[in-house]
Write a structure and sequence with these properties.
Elements (H helix, E strand, L loop, with lengths): L4 H34 L6 H25 L7 H7 L11 H37 L1
Helix pairs in contact: 1-2
InterPro entries: LETM1-like_RBD, LETM1/MDM38-like
GO cellular component, one term: mitochondrial inner membrane
Pfam families: LETM1_RBD
Length: about 130
């Protein structure tokens, strides 16, 4: 069914609360990783990617906080998100945005696989023609 304005506002507040909570958790984990790096330990590839994502999220948070702090500027947030879709930190992504990104990645991988398959088939034809 259709949600009331109050329910939509509550849902948005929950979304932002959970986003900030996840960002805080990621920041704590990233701080531990930086501490380990400073003490000479080596990070795994997964930890390195998480550290880079968290740092990028913290840099994206600065312009996002302007929308949260300045009164009534949150009404302009959808306009800026349309202009700059990567402005929000990754912890604030909705499920639909996440699915959309996964679909784009999958389509790109399928196109690459199709290209490679066609290239291999063409190379096989050439080799067959050369040997025959």
């Amino acid at each position: 069914g259709k949600k009331s304005i109050r329910q939509k506002a509550v849902d948005e507040l929950k979304h932002y609360y959970h986003g900030f909570h996840l960002l805080w958790t990621d920041t704590k984990v990233a701080a531990r990783m930086v501490w380990r790096l400073l003490h000479g330990q080596v990070l795994t590839r997964r930890e390195r990617r998480r550290l880079l994502r968290t740092c990028a999220d913290l840099f994206r948070l600065v312009p996002f906080l302007v929308f949260v702090i300045v009164p009534f500027m949150e009404f302009l947030l959808p306009v800026f998100l349309k202009l700059f879709p990567e402005m929000l930190p990754s912890t604030f992504e909705t499920e639909s945005k996440r699915e959309e990104k996964l679909k784009k990645k999958l389509n790109a991988k399928l196109e690459l696989a199709k290209f490679l398959r066609e290239t291999i088939a063409e190379m096989a034809k050439r080799n067959k023609a050369d040997t025959g």
